[in-house]
Amino acid sequence: MLSDWLYIGVFLLVSMFLPAAAITIAGILSPRKPNAMKDSIYECGVETVGETWIQFKAQYYIFALVFLVFDVETIFLYPWAMAYNQMLLFGVVEAILFILILLGGLLYCWKKGILQWT
Known about the structure:
Elements: H1 2-29, H2 36-39, H3 58-82, H4 89-112
C-alpha cells in the first residue's frame, strides 16, 4: 500500500521538477542581446497610431461568447447524431429537449439583437 503512494509522490516531484528545470536551463542558455527594435511594442507587424488602450464594444465580446456557447453545444450533438440508430426513445427525447433549449437560447439572442453585427 505504501509503495502505491510512493509512486504518486515520485511522480509529483518529477512533474514539478522537469518544467522548472526546463525553464531554468532555457533562461541560462538563451542568448540575450537586447536592442531598441527588440524592445519596441509589436502589434501585428504595424506600428500603433494614437491611443493604444481603447475601449472595445461589449457587443463584440458578447457575440464571441454566444458563438462559443453554440459551437460547444453543437459538439455535444455530434455523438448523439453518430449513435442515433442505437438510441432508445429516452435518448432521442433528451436530444430533442437539448435542441429545443438551444433554439430557445438562439431566439432569446435574436430578440435581444445580439446577433446583429454593428
